[in-house]
Structure formats: C-alpha cells, structure tokens
Amino acid sequence: MMRNRAVFSRACRLGRMMPYRSAIRNFFFPKVCVFCGGVPVRSGRAKADSLCEDLSVCAVCLALLPFKLFTAHEIPCLSNAYESDPIPGFSVLVPFRYEGEIVSALRALKFNDAPYIARTLGYFMATSAYASGRSFDAVIPVPLSTSRLRRRGYNQAALLATEISGRLELPCLECFLIRTRSTRQQSRFVDPGLRAANVRGAFAVPEEASVEGLRILLVDDVFTTGNTLHEAALALFRAGAADVTAVTTASGRDDDNEKGFMTSDLSGAKKHRFAR
Ligand SMILES: [Zn+2]
Q: What's the CA-to-centroid distance between 115 and ligand 1, angstroms?
C-alpha cells in the first residue's frame, strides 16, 4: 500500500514536470514545420496551436495549403468510364488540389526518403474520409511491386494508410491486397488505353486473406487517371468486398477542366525544401 502511494506520488510529480521537460526539449530541439522547415510560432489560439503542433505544420503553411472545398472532395474514379465498366459508381475522396507544397510533399514522400510527411498528409485524408459520412470496416493501401518496395524501402500508400487507420480507429489490412505482376510507372504513358492496359489485372486478394462483406477504404498517394485505383478496387470487389471507396492526398486531375487530365510533370513546382 505504502509502495503504491509512493509510486502514485512519483507519477504525479513526473506529470507536473512533463511540461517543463517538454519545454526544455523543445528549446534545444524545436519541432519544425514539415513544409518550410521553420520553427512554428504559437498564435495563442489553443486549438490552432495544438493542431499545428500535432501535424508539425506552421500556421502560415497550413493557411497556404491547396485545400479543396469539402463538397468537392468526392470525384468519380474514371471520368471517361470505358464501356462495360464493372464499377461505374466507384469514387475517390481527395482533400487537396495537386499544386504548390502538396506536389513537393508528395514528391518528397515518394522519391526523397521523407516518410515522416505521411503523418501530416494522412491526417487530412482521414478527415476527408470522416467528413464523407461513409462507414468503413478497414483500410487497405495500394501495394507496391516488390522491386520498387526494395528500392524505396517503404510503400508511401501504406504509410498513409497506417496514419489514417490510427486516426479513424480502423484496422489497416496491408497484406490483404497484393500485386500479381510488376507494372511500369503510370506517368510514363500518355495514351489512356496504354495506361489502363499497364495495370489491368495487376492486383489480387491473396487466398489466405478475406475481405468478404467488408466496407473498405482504399488508400493511395495521388489520383490521376484512376486506372490503378480502379483495378485495385476491382480485385477487392471480386474477392467479395461489400463496398470500396478510395482516398488519396491530391488529385492530379484538372479540376477546372473535367474533360482532361493534367499530363505535365509540373516542372514549375518549387523544389522541395522539407525539414528532417
Ligand atoms: Zn511552414
């Protein structure tokens, strides 16, 4: 009993000391904004400061991010659904336009060994999924091919899915969708037919896994033509999933002109300057 009281009293003392310890740690090793690398200045508004601290984003960058209107988050997966499309109602939730710091963030996540950015981006994707009002049973990332996974060291979609599953308190079933063959990077193809053919039949649910009756939130980093997401969703539906909705960080589709896609490589985008 005495020992319990001593432990409790020590825990209380430690609890009181934590803000001081955290202040000292922040003084010597300040958290920096993942977008600009600057040390975030507190605005004095508790809610905003807490969000910025949680996401490692400064208030200035947060205000400049290319958010889409909530009412425009949901877009059809294939705008030019091809004949006999097996899942014409399949849609994608997208919180950002593909521009500015979001382009840099996605490039850094994908090509510059910056997995920590998934934590920030995943928050906004989870918010989009929550705001959609849909119910989900599990989160599944679009898988990478084994060779690309070996080269990169991580699957950026899986990092985003892990963050989203934590925020939404859903299981992340990373191994429930696999690539059955290697595909070339979709951005290498301009012709829509070749892009579709490149990923056709490239995904499957392994025999030992079951998605029967599940409502799935399918996660990828960026949404362009929708061919990859469409094929991944098709594999889940064929394996018995009750519903599939996708979520990506941004849409590379030209929102102002739904007739086409942005096919440029956005070479004018700022070079990434992300903090470690
Ligand atoms: Zn910043």
A: 17
Of 268, 262, 259, the closest CA to residue 250 belongs to 262
Ligand 1 ion: Cβ-proximal residues, 5 Å cutoff: 33, 35-36, 58, 61
Query: Distance (Å, rounded) from C-alpha 181 to C-alpha 250?
Result: 26
pLDDT tens figures, 80-101: 555 566 677 889 999 999 999 9
Q: Tell me, in angstroms, the distance from the centre of ligand 1 to residue 45's CA.
A: 17
Q: Give distance in angstroms: CA of 111 to centre of ligand 1.
A: 21
Burial (CB count <10 Å: 0-12, 13-18, 19+), residue 221: buried
Note the pLDDT of residue 172.
97
**d(CA 116, ligand 1 centre) in Å:** 15
CATH number for the domain including 223? 3.40.50
Q: Residue 246 forms beta bridges with which residues?
A: 92, 218
Q: How far is CA 4 from CA 1, 12, 13, 149, 256, in A?
A: 5, 12, 14, 49, 64
Gap from CA of 155 to ligand 1 centroid (Å): 25
Q: Are residues 142 and 183 in the same domain?
A: yes
CA nearest 33: which of 106, 95, 117? Answer: 117
pLDDT digits (tens, 9 = 90+) for 97-133: 999 999 999 999 988 788 999 999 999 999 999 999 9
Q: How many domains does the chain have?
A: 2
Whether residue 238 is contained in a domain is answered as yes
Assigned domain for 268 exists: no
Distance 54 CA to ligand 1 centre (A): 13
What is the CA(170)–ligand 1 centre distance, in A?
30
What residues of the chain score a pLDDT lower than 70? 1-30, 79-86, 189-190, 254-276
